[in-house]
Write the structure tokens for this entry.
Amino acid sequence: MELNSEADEDTKKEQEQKEEEKEKQHFHVLAVDDSNIDRKLLERLLTVSSYQVTCVDSGDKALEYLGLLDIQESEISRTSSISSCSSSSSKSSEKEVSKVNLIMTDYSMPGITGYDLLKRVKRSSWKDVPVVVMSSENIPSRITMCLEGGAEEFLLKPVKLADMRKLHSHLLNTTNIHDTIIDSDHNNNTNKRKASSPEDSDRRTRIQELPVS
């Protein structure tokens, strides 16, 4: 009886582990780091942890990927393409972008820093997506500033495999966020189309006023 009980417990644990691995595969992490070495390390750790990963090497490209760049910024950033770690296409589509469940960004980057990126994300429609900031410098004031600015975690480099285990709890409540974002964008676009065609409404009004023979 005891052997059967232990076997059942082992089987249950294996099933739970498999379910957790399957769940992780649905989570998409956007990794932002200007250091090629750190970016590759982060990619490997996330991939080993069964996460889908897309890597970019600057805050500008991260904003472009998320659709948060204005026209002028977008033209500048478009000179170089987004580097995708696990996706078959290097170009971001609405479908790919809608799946971002977590953003991991280096703090010290030229141009838009990790803190700048954090602030832009938290002021946008992506505000509910968790942001994790990483840095090789253990500066308490910087850590406090990022956490108070909305970061879920502040990880010290080099990032370790154990750090990846902390991410799962932040991801559990983000599976439906992308649906809300896409629905919101769709509704906004629909309203814009309706508002931009007053002639159509006038035409429909004239048709309704025609006498019926």
Notes: Residues 87-96, 192-197, 203-208 have pLDDT under 50 and may be disordered. The radius of gyration is 23 Å. The first helix runs from residue 2 to 25.
